[in-house]
Design a protein that fits this description.
By secondary structure, this protein is of the alpha/beta class. It is built from six helices and 13 strands.
């Protein structure tokens, strides 16, 4: 009876802890050219809220690659958030102080989740400030193609449940030119045109930088798959330190993430 009572009390305490868990306070910056960001924002919001305990603020503006998102005009743009999700296509923005303002909170320790075209954002600016967050340099991608994604690290908790091979239809293979220290490759794909293998999912931890990055996700159809949404959800939880070694969320932070 005593043993039963102890187990009951432990379970009750765990349930109480889970119920009291504060949601991950996340900011999503989105917008720009070449993508349907209105559809993607809806897909990502619904997918993340279904899978994890998250309080998500979304700031969407601009429909060109030259647009300078007004959120970044404030030096404290990321203040108060546990993590920032970048899903933006502002590849022609070259203003160096602006780009350095985008990167600054992440260099100071605000975790980042960086999706698809965000890897090419600010790439023509004469600064490595944004690449210092990404951990890799890419200036171009191949034409859209059906890509066979190969899992590289099945033991990493972010890749829990990710297929050993996954066909990602009509996505873009970003050509990686340079790799920074602190990058951990998690998945790769072979380019149809070049035949080169490029990393398509990785982690970058260097100094105070803590970033989950994937070049996958050109189409909303890709983002709407369970494989992609589970991957990004785990990326968010990893970024904020709420993902356990077995790939499961800490108590109170998972909903239907499998």
């Amino acid at each position: 009876m005593k043993k039963f009572l102890l187990v009951f009390l432990a379970g009750a305490a765990l349930s109480l802890f889970a119920a009291d868990a504060k949601p991950v306070k996340a900011l999503m910056i989105t917008g720009g050219g070449s993508h349907d960001y209105t559809a993607q924002r809806k897909t990502l919001e619904e997918g993340l809220k279904k899978r994890i305990n998250i309080d998500l603020t979304i700031l969407q503006e601009g429909d060109t690659r030259e647009h300078m998102h007004s959120a970044y005009n404030n030096p404290d743009w990321a203040k108060g958030y546990d993590v920032v999700i970048h899903n933006e296509c502002f590849g022609m923005v070259k203003d160096v102080p602006f780009v350095e303002r985008v990167a600054a909170p992440h260099k100071a320790g605000v975790p980042a989740v960086i999706l698809h075209a965000s890897v090419h954002a600010y790439r023509y600016a004469e600064t490595d400030a944004w690449r210092d967050i990404l951990g890799q340099k890419s200036m171009r991608h191949e034409n859209r193609q059906d890509m066979q994604i190969t899992l590289l690290d099945a033991k990493d908790p972010i890749m829990h449940g990710f297929p050993a091979e996954w066909l990602d239809k009509q996505d873009e293979n970003y050509v990686i030119e340079k790799v920074w220290p602190g990058v951990k490759p998690l998945a790769k794909a072979k380019g149809m045109t070049t035949g080169n293998e490029n990393v398509v999912v990785w982690l970058h931890t260097e100094g105070k930088v803590r970033a989950f990055v994937t070049t996958l996700g050109h189409l909303d159809a890709t983002m709407a798959t369970d494989v992609y949404e589970n991957l990004v959800a785990r990326g968010v939880l990893w970024a904020v330190g709420k993902l356990q070694d077995d790939g499961s969320p800490m108590a109170g932070y998972g909903r239907s993430l499998k």
